Amino acid sequence: MFHCQAGARPRTWGASPPEHKKWVEVFKACDEDNKGYLSREDFKVAVVMLFGYKPSKTVIFGKFVFFQFLGIQLKEFLDIVRKKKEAQLYCNEVRHIFTAFDRHYRGYLTLEDFKKAFKQVAPKLSERIILEVFRKESRDVGGHLAGVPIWIKVISEI
Fold first, then answer.
1. What does the alpha-carbon distance between residue 136 and residue 67 come to, in Å, rounded to a whole number?
2. In this structure, are 49 and 114 located in the same domain?
């Protein structure tokens, strides 16, 4: 699975009331001693419960340095989860768009695929700009845009 970070511009998204309630319940379940905050271990468990994976040490360290090792309170936890959800939704949307333009399911876009894609989504964009972006980003030997991570970078730049 790729990480959707470089140039990613997720939209602001609000959780539905049931989803928000679930996040609060997870926070409370992971705050075993009712301290009012999550320790590093509590935070790891909460991420596993909500997203199905254990966060890396780098992610954990980054969050706790930001919150000065005091632990993550409910408000901060909800903000972290919301931002993670926004990024996931954005990445899924980008993957879906890439797949729609990769009509032959090759995992890359040719110049022709790329031109057709931009004629559909941005018909007023000049062909010169399309060619410049394609040439700049087509990195493999065959002159293709290889996969979703490059697609994310391309659409972030245009």
1. 39
2. no
Question: Helices then strands (H, E): number in the chain?
Answer: 7, 4
Amino acid at 48: V
Confidence of residue 142 (pLDDT cuts 50, 70, 90): low
Residue pLDDT, tens place only, 47-77 = 999 988 888 877 776 766 666 567 889 999 9
> Which of 59, 106, 107 is CA-nearest to residue 83?
59
Report pTM: 0.60
Q: Is residue 125 part of a domain?
A: yes
| Residue ending a domain, choose from 93, 123, 147 | 93
The residue segments making up the domain with residue 65 are 17-93
* Percent of the chain residues topping a pLDDT of 70: 76
